[in-house]
Design goal:
This protein has a single domain, classed as Beta-galactosidase, Chain A, domain 5. The protein is 7% helix and 43% strand. It starts with a helix and ends with a strand. 43% of the residues are buried. Bound molecules: 6-O-phosphono-beta-D-tagatofuranose.
């Protein structure tokens, strides 16, 4: 669909407009009485979310690249239909292909409470079918209000069951890692990627003082990012997600990635709601699975 057609079919006066921000890269700009948000159609990638009167909740690197087929550093990348490396083919892209392929807009609407609802669907192609030989659909439903509600909905339209790994790889904006504690994972088991996937147990709140890359398993609990610098907490509530991933690349890795900027890693932390490792989902033919995450801000 062209930009003009998108605006004709799906723009809503004071709520949603579509713009081209780089060649081939269209963004849905959402502005309502509660918040501002930008969603890039490639990857159905929520790039920004900022409740009115608040600092941004989502971190987007100032050096993020917006280009066809490239993943965006920051925002809410969708890891689907696998999380991390593919289990048998190392040539396939890490975290799946959903974040780097085109999605289409299926629906936009203004809700009675002033929020905005948008629904996107991944567009299947030869490329996606070659990497994922299962008949399925995946949609992202986003509600932009005072809170940001994100639903990743997968349906198995095949005649056989398949295994699904997934995550909303959300980058959160914080004042500084030294002033931030992540709570909600006490006594949880995790696999520590920094220690070659060692099995560990979380003892207390997490303060990031070096590279952190952990997959917490069997946890449905809310997480809270307490930020003394911004005097606020970001609450991450979730449904049908049994894994939480906490990631900060720290200095050396961030420098190597090239799209964080100097000390960019200090102003972000990823707290990802998903189903990974032991928690991957088996989806029966005809079944639908819906992963939900809701991000809201509380005063500290
Ligand atoms: O979710 C954490 C993680 O899997 C890390 O291991 C890390 O490398 C990261 O995601 C970012 O991955 P990306 O492919 O977006 O550079």
């Amino acid at each position: 669909m062209t930009l003009a057609e998108l605006n004709q079919r799906f723009a809503i006066g004071n709520h949603v407009q579509f713009k081209e921000i780089a060649a081939g890269m269209i963004v849905a700009e959402v502005a309502n009485q509660h918040a501002l948000a930008n969603i890039v159609l490639q990857g159905a990638h929520i790039a920004t979310f900022q409740p009115r009167g608040e600092e941004p909740v989502i971190w987007l690197s100032p050096y993020a690249k917006f280009a066809p087929g490239k993943s965006i550093r920051g925002g809410v990348p969708i890891c689907w239909p696998w999380f991390g490396p593919h289990k048998s083919d190392s040539k396939l892209p890490g975290h799946g292909f959903a974040r780097t392929v085109p999605w289409e807009v299926l629906e936009t609407k203004a809700l009675p409470d002033g929020s905005t609802f948008l629904r996107f669907g991944l567009i299947e192609s030869e490329t996606t079918r070659a990497q994922w030989p299962h008949a399925s659909t995946v949609q992202l439903a986003v509600t932009v209000g005072k809170a940001l509600r994100v639903e990743l909905i997968t349906t198995n339209t095949d005649t056989k069951a398949f295994e699904l790994g997934e995550a909303l790889h959300t980058y959160f904006h914080i004042s500084d890692v030294a002033k931030t504690t992540i709570r909600g994972l006490d006594n949880c088991a995790y696999l520590d990627k920094v220690q070659n996937f060692a099995h560990c147990t979380q003892k207390d709140g997490i303060v990031i003082e070096s590279e952190v890359d952990r997959v917490y398993i069997n946890t449905a609990a809310d997480c809270v990012i307490e930020d003394k610098g911004l005097k606020r907490a970001i609450r991450i509530a979730k449904q049908d997600s049994m894994s939480t991933v906490v990631w900060n690349p720290w200095t050396e890795k961030a420098d190597k990635m090239g799209d964080f900027g100097e000390n960019g890693h200090r102003g972000m932390v990823c707290v990802e709601s998903g189903n990974a490792m032991e928690n991957i989902v088996t989806l029966a033919p005809g079944a639908t699975h819906k992963l939900v995450a809701v991000y809201s801000v509380e005063k500290l």
